[in-house]
Amino acid sequence: MSLQLICLNAVLRASAKPYMRRVAAPEQLRKDMERWSRLFLRDAPSTVALPLTLGDRPALSVRSGKITPDVAILHLHGGAFVAGSPTTHKGMLSRLSRLAAVEVFAPDYRLAPEHPFPAGLNDAEAAFADLVAKGYAPGRIVLSGDSAGAGLALSLLARLCKAGTPPAGLIAMSPWTDLTGASPSIVLIEERDPMLAAERMEEVTGYYLNGHRADDPAVSPLYASYPDCPPVLLQTSERDILRDDAMRLEHKLRDAKVDVTLQLFPDAPHAWQMFDGLIPEARAALRDAGDFARRCLSLPARN
């Protein structure tokens, strides 16, 4: 564990976790995430971020450095289904773009509680369809997501596999895959997690579900099927209360003969990839994600 990560975990434990326990409403979380991202999360050099529309939703196109034409990453941001935006994640996406040499598209999908399930998933599906309409073949698009956004990406992957239009692959960073709360790590390592507050998960899940079944495969992709699934990269941490969400999914996909890779980082916080530029562990994870995207897209390895 790097000295930078030791310091980051201490700061998160002293500030972020108490905040997660007390923040009163999704509206406040949204405002604070936007403010924090501007203060602490920097873009990669030479980043170009342009607004556009995907489906009927606002979106960002993010690129940094030399970009490979005719391929794309479609990223769904995290934020527990109630917060976050392409803007809050722009720094990480610019760094992923630079490391993969691929343009990243991020839709501003609708959020709960104003827009509960299935609004966000439908927006993600519409964004993918719009990229295809713009000339990107499904097999030239890599899906990506972090936290709740990784869960949405996996739910979209299941839909696309069933429709016979799978993407080239999927990157899931600290994925939330089981909204029933059945993963043992939620209880077992709650004290070790420097960021997430397990006691708020039922409340947040309720905003998103709005009475819908938590074990619906479209809600909890752990219970979905993935026929003819492309390669999947799962990244999680031993300190993340959602660790077992990724590990249980890895077992399911491996049993289904999917080409799945699980990367288990020992000490990183939830969605630590956001902190590239602050901790070397974030750069290591994003570099692996970029290399994975290039392999899925049949692009040569970067030096």
Structure, briefly:
The protein has helices spanning 3-22, 26-40, 90-100, 119-133, 148-163, 185-188, 201-209, 243-255, 280-296, and strands at 47-54, 57-64, 72-76, 103-107, 141-146, 169-173, 232-237, 260-265.
Q: Please write the CATH class name.
A: Alpha Beta
Strand-residue proportion: 15-25%
Structural class: alpha/beta
Total count of strands: 8
Q: Give me the side-by-side strand order of the main sheet.
A: 1-2-4-3-5-6-7-8
In the predicted model, the low-confidence regions spanning at least 5 consecutive residues are none
Strand-and-helix sequence, N→C?
HHEEEHEHEHEHHEHEH
Shape: globular
Q: Which architecture would the CATH scheme give at its second level?
A: 3-Layer(aba) Sandwich
Counting copies of identical and different chains, the oligomeric state is single chain
The averaged pLDDT comes out at: 96
What is the CA-atom radius of gyration, in angstroms? 17 Å
In whole angstroms, the N-to-C terminal distance is 25 Å
CATH topology (fold) name: Rossmann fold
Range of helix content: 25-40%
Total number of domains: 1
* Tally of contiguous helical segments: 9
Q: What's the CATH H-level homologous superfamily? A: Alpha/Beta hydrolase fold, catalytic domain
Q: What does the largest sheet look like?
A: 8 strands, mixed
